Amino acid sequence: MYAAARTRRLLAVGAGALVLGLAGCGSDDDDGGGGGTTTTGGGGAAQAPADTSFELTIGDLVPLTGDLSPFGPPGRKSADLAISQIEEAVREAGVDTTVSIEHRDTESSPQSAVQAARQMISGGAACLAGPWASSETLAVAESVASRQRTPIISPSSTDAAITDLDDDGFVWRTAPSDNLQSRALADTVERELGGTDFTLSLAARNDAYGQGFIEKFRTAWEEKGGRTTGPVLYDPEQPSYNSEAAEIVAGNPDAYVIIDFFETYGKMGASLVRTGEFDAGRLFTADGLASDRIPDTIPLRALAGARGTRPGAPESGATVEEFARIYRAAGGAPRQTFDAQHFDATMLCYLGALAAGSADGAEIAEQLQAVSGPPGRRFTFLELADGIRAIAAGEEVDFDGVTGPIDFDDNGDPTAATYEVYRYGADGVLRVERQFEASAAER
C-alpha cells in the first residue's frame, strides 16, 4: 500500500458549533488552506497495492431538492461521467477493480444528508462524494464520517470552519475554503469599484456558509481600508424580509455584498426590489448565487447586473476542454458551478481506494493526500489508465483534476484555486468576464 501521507487533524471544534452550523454553499496538463499543527509532506515510499481486484461503491450525496437544487442534477451527472471514465480506464489498464455509484438526495438539509450518508454506508459505500452545503458537511462530519471511518469529499462546502474540524482525517473538499474566496471577492470588489474608499452594506443568510463568509469578507475589506455597515444576518426560514431589506439599503451604500442561496434570495430579492432603492448593478455576491441564468423564482431586478466570484476551472487546456466535451455529449443537465469539483471528488474516491488496494474507508482516507499532490507522476483523467497502471505498480502519483492541481493540505483543503468573476446580464444570463488564480500560500 501507499505509505500514509497525512497527519490527523486534532484542532477541536466544539460539538455545539457543529450542530449550530447550517449551510455553505465553485487543469490542463501544465504545472500549475488552512494550516494544521504539523505536516508530513506530500508522500512516502510506495509499495504495490496488496490487491487490485476489490469492489468499490462510491456514495454520491447531491442536493436534488431544497435550497441547492439547481446544483444537484449537474453534480449527479458529473459523478456519473467520472464513473464512466473510471470504468473505461480500468478496462484499458487491465486491473480488476469494479466501481459503482449510488446517488442520494440530501434535500439541502443537514438531517437528510446525515440519513442519506448512513444509508449509503450501510449499503456498502466506502467513500462519499459530497455533500454540498457546508451545513450538511458539518453534520455528516460530526455524526457519520469519523464515527463510521468513511471519507467524504465535498465539491462545494466552502465554510472556513471545516478546515479545523476534529474529524480524524475523514473530511476533504475539492472546493477552496472561504478563507480564500472571501479575500478573492474583496480583491474583485476593489478592482470593480476602482478602489476601497467606499461603504459596503453587508448581508447574508444566518448559517455556517453565510455568516462565516460575510464575516471574513468584512475583515478583508476593512483591512483594505474600506467601510462596511451590517452585516444583516437573516433566518433562511423566514416568510419575508421587508425589515431586513430596508436595513440593507439604508444610508444609500456604495455597493452591497449579499451571500445567499437561490431559494432564500427569491424572497430577499423581492423585498429588496420593493424598497424602491435597491440597484442590483451595485450587488456583489459569490458561488451560492451563481447559475447559468437567474431562476424564475427570483425577480430579474433583484439580480440582473450583479457581479460575483465562484470557484471554477482553468479557462483552457486539454483537460478542461475534454471535460466540457464529454459533459455536452452526455446531454441532460447544463453546466453548473462545482460540477468539475464533483467530478474530481468522485475520481479521488476511486484513486484513494486503488492506492490503498482496498474498499475500506479508513484505508482510502489514508491515501487521498498522497494521490492528490506531489511527489509523483502527474496525470489527469485524460491519462487515467496510465495513472492506474502506475498506482498498481506501486509508483507515486499526483492527480490533477479538471479544476487544476488539488494538492490536499493536511486539513483536507486544496491549496490553490481558479476563480471566475461573473456578471448577470439584463437578460438574466450569467457570463464569465475573467478568471484569476488564488493560492493559500499567497494569503
From TrEMBL:
Keywords noted in UniProt: Signal
Similarity field: Belongs to the leucine-binding protein family.
UniProt entry tagged with the keyword Hydrolase: no
Extent of the signal sequence: 1-17
Species for this entry: Conexibacter stalactiti
PANTHER family given in the database record: LEUCINE-SPECIFIC-BINDING PROTEIN (PTHR30483), PERIPLASMIC BINDING PROTEIN OF ABC TRANSPORTER FOR NATURAL AMINO ACIDS (PTHR30483:SF6)
All copies of domain Leucine-binding protein, residue ranges: 56-424
InterPro entries: BCAA_transport, Leu-bd, Peripla_BP_I
Superkingdom of origin organism: Bacteria
Protein name: ABC transporter substrate-binding protein
